[in-house]
Amino acid sequence: MLVVLKSLYRSRASAFGTSIVLLFALLALIAPWVAPYEVNQQILEDARQAPSSRHIFGTDHLGRDVFSRVLLGAAQVLILAGSGTFLAVVSGTSLGLLTGYRGGWLDDFFMRLFDSLLAIPALLLALLFLGMAGPSRQSVLLVIVIVYTPIVARVVRSVVLSIKTKSFIDAARLQGETTARILFREILPSAIPALAVEASLRFSYAIFLISSLGFLGLGVQPPNPDWGLMVKEARAFVSQAPWAMYYPAAAIATIVIGVNLMADGLRKALQVSSDLHG
Amino acid sequence: MEPLLQVDQLTVGYQSTLGIYEVVRNVTFEIAPGQIFGVVGESGSGKSTLALAIMRYLPVGGLIRNGTINFEGRDLSQIDLEEMRRIWGADLGLVPQDPLSALNPSIRVGEQIAEVLRRHRGMQDAEASALSMAWMEKVRLHEPGRVAHSYPHQLSGGMQQRVMIAMALCTEPKLLMLDEPTTNLDATTQATILDLLCELMEVHHTAAMYITHNLGVVAQICSELAVLYAGEIVERGPTQQLFHDPLHPYTRGLLDSVPRLGRTKRQVRVQAIQGRIPSVEALPTGCIFRQRCPLAIEICEEPPPLFMNTGRRESRCHRWEEIASGELDASQGASPIRPFKIPPPDEQPTLLVENLRVQFERSQNLIDRIRHRAGGSIKAVNHVGFDIHPGETLGLVGESGSGKTTTARAILGLIRPEEGKIHLQGQQVALKLAERTLDIRRLAQMVFQNLNEAFNPYMTIGEALSRPLIRLVGLPPDQVRQEVYRLLESVQLPAHYAERFPGSLSGGERQRVAIARAFASSPALLLADEAVSALDVSVQAAILNLLGELQAESGSATLFISHDLAAVGYIADRVAVIYLGQLMELARSEDLFQPPYHPYTEALLSAIPLVDPDAEKEHIRLSGDIPALTEVQAGCPFESRCPRRIGEICRDVPPPWQEGDRGMKIFCHIPIAELETQQARVFQFSDKGAPEA
Fold first, then answer.
1. Do A168 and B471 touch (CB under 8 A)?
2. Going by DSSP bridges, is the β-strand pair B92-95/B175-179 parallel, antiparallel, or unpaired?
3. Chain B contacts in chain A segment 197-216 (CB below 8 A)
4. What's the CA dihedral at A174, A175, A181, A185 to 10 degrees?
5. What is the pTM of this model?
């Protein structure tokens, strides 16, 4: 772990990205103690204030402190995107391992199912589902899992297909290893590098998806300090209080760029370490 | 005569982040016009770097540090690359190891040859095409018109190499660089390519530097050779003298480590060279071979100069005079391997395979579907049957695509045969692996062909070795570690290797661990698939001996699969020869190398380059390439290339299995008695010690 972190800091771009991600994670952690105001604390006389020493990011049309809301929203989005990605990785990995190793009709069935899911744009699929299930945090979480499971499964499956023909898998079969052990102990480690890169990319897209849904009003509901939702709410008052829209939008852009740069560095770092393993 | 190429004190280095590593040091030699000069070395000896440096073809980071390369009065190390471009192709040709990556995949091969002629000979289109066609005939490509219009991937490996030879020779260069040009080819194809090369070079008076690790090839075609070790020439001289009395312990070691065709482990034991080639980062001081040399003494800590004797012999050994006079013998002279026992013929065999047939279905592609054509099937293994007794080694030898590995995988249940019966210790076992119990899986284990894929790169050696102990032997957890150490010791590896990852092991070490893993469950049957093919000769010998010894100790039966007839003949008690999925001959290994042979065995034996420059040999060459498995007809699969074909019967009627003396069986229409009168001994070594008939 420490080795990976070290190699992430070897290139300037990935060091920058990793620092952004770590900074956001840190801010999300300490937000409850450092945020100067409550999330939904309305100071009506301060409404639509430009950034000042009292409100460094200014206030929105309801007099809420934008800085506090961006800060407190970080934890919201990171947790939702993180847990969604995690669940998608777990289910995608299991399905990818199983279908890739078994092959045959099982593989055909899941791959065609995934093809049809992937044929629909992610946002459209999300809208469709949220339209049926109704907008809520749980629904958003489920949407992330449904949209990203096929993608993760495909990545894992392609690794499985290249590994399962190798002699060490034959050796394991001759030694009477169980299928579960072959999947998780013999094959999975080879998929970890690709999986780590894919997971971090999915994480950045999940942040994007959550924000998009919030912006469209189908994701997390008000008065939650979701960044997308904040952009949507501030949009109506953009001529009077543009800062209420700019800062959450900038937060989204920054973390997405940060995660992407980190993923790039991760790919290079893991490439090197898997070369070392032969 | 003025030499054509004169390399003097050449030192080549590679720039790395840690400094410059000199991988070729102070190399001096010369090549006369028309001479074929051999450079022999194991992997890591710097032989390819040497060739690239002479051609000024070094990759980025490579640089000539010192020395001169005199080629026709010009020093190639000094001239600029623009001028070099005029020399490449015109005066200096190259035939690389892998023709497929050297040919442009998107240009027809005829055009690729013509391009060389236009570029270097200034020919017009029509003239170049005509000459290109003429050269295709010269390299004996059948139907040159059709081949000229083919793309490289449509040609077989042998044909691609013929195209490369035509391309290199068509400008009539004075010097050819041959970088392992036949290493990737089958023995029968290699023989025809070598014949062709020698013949064309003689006609056009072309000189060549032939780089290889194969001592047999240099013995056959080179007049003079240099032995390269860890970047230095340790010995140089005329081929015959060098083979008969080498003046450097390394050369002696190399010669002692190759199994000779027709000599079994009971007659003579191959000698491995201790240790491994030093890496460029940690070169020893003094003599470069000191750490592995059986003759090393105090003076060897001084770097030895290149000693030269009266003949054109050079040796970089302080003790060469003692070696030359016969006072010192660098070969260690260990005793041959004692076989476990000669199995009584009525005993129950460990493995009995009957009528094994494996077929691969080629699924329909889109065009097949449109035309309502069924997908084809490939008969990979055809009615193969044999038995192996306890303590016996059966060699299975054949060229690539002959179905050797498929047979082994079918026996283990890793692929499902179409039909057949497999008995292990008298008990018929399921053909599907999933239906075999752990007790049955324990009986048969395998050493896999591909060294790089044999181990999970993310698992330590210790864990890899512990798995069969836990799963198959059922050892209690507290005894596993002890047993892993014992296994490592049995293959002569230190216990701390248990903590290492396979990526940090050398090829030979990895193969030792693979053998330890296969023996972990004390199997009754061991299948070794090309267990030594990927290894350097000096390491090969150690692995062959290890296999022989472990088997003699445990008494397990072994199926030893290889394309290398000499290695098979050395380790095996009986040999089965397979061609296109069909067994051709089964014989005791002492009998395989003398008539009567199956005509295919005869051709195979004749194709193998012997490690003896004076050996006498029958010249039998096969025409054409190995046919595709889909084209095999009802009769004998060898019919299309057989030099002893007797008529239509060979194509239309499957030959009978004829039984000869001492369990010998051949699959041929020609009666054994008749073969015996027609066939001579294919090869005869020049020195004494050849096996008695």
1. no
2. parallel
3. none
4. -100
5. 0.87
